[in-house]
Write a sequence for this structure.
């Protein structure tokens, strides 16, 4: 394979990854909006399209590695794209879990301050997630392990505190059991998304410095 053609293949692979990334972030931003049942189902149904796109990226990445035997810099790029696609797909799956959990719950806003604390976590995590895409697209990522590890710990801590408050509220107010379970599950999923986002930062590190 000619060098120019190989470079174009990597660019196309990267562009396909960015398309999935953008789609996942848009879904993430919508999960606590006042969605109709049709919109919720559309988000769920679109998951299959995302999964198929990720499989295509994985297969193409493996093909390029096997056929081209790329030098270390190119190999890191391809491996990073494949690994990032897996993490992004995982976040997409978590988003679907949240949408499914909320599908039959129509009174989350009635949780008042607790619900707004969840929205705060959602906002902080969303900015953290969007920053990964911005850095990847602009190619201006500067590795800072302490920064993204600190952010992950911050979000996990907020999730833990909110979970404790939800349990305390249930014991005091005798809240609806099903809604309490859903609330706790959504908090848990947000925490999982935070850890997967941390993994994305680690792969961005790998692309830049070649060390995990």
């Amino acid at each position: 394979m000619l060098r120019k053609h190989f470079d174009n293949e990597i660019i196309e692979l990267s562009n396909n990854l960015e398309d999935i990334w953008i789609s996942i972030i848009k879904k993430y931003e919508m999960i606590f909006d006042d969605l109709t049942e049709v919109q919720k189902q559309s988000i769920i149904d679109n998951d299959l399209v995302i999964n198929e796109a990720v499989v295509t990226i994985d297969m193409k990445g493996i093909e390029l590695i096997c056929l081209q035997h790329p030098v270390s810099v190119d190999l890191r790029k391809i491996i990073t794209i494949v690994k990032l696609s897996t993490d992004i797909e995982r976040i997409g799956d978590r988003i679907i879990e949240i949408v499914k959990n909320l599908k039959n719950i129509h009174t989350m806003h009635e949780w008042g301050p607790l619900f707004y604390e969840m929205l705060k976590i959602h906002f902080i995590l969303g900015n953290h997630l969007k920053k990964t895409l911005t850095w990847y697209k602009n190619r201006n990522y500067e590795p800072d392990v302490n920064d993204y590890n600190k952010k992950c710990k911050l979000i996990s801590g907020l999730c833990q505190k909110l979970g404790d408050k939800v349990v305390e509220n249930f014991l005091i107010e005798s809240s609806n059991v099903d809604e309490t379970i859903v609330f706790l599950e959504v908090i848990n999923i947000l925490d999982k998304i935070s850890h997967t986002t941390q993994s994305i930062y680690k792969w961005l590190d790998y692309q830049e410095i070649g060390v995990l």
User: Anything to note?
Assistant: Residues 3-209 form a domain with the Methane Monooxygenase Hydroxylase; Chain G, domain 1 fold (CATH 1.20.58.220). The helical segments are 3-30, 37-45, 47-68, 72-102, 113-138, 145-173, 177-209. The chain has a mean pLDDT of 89.
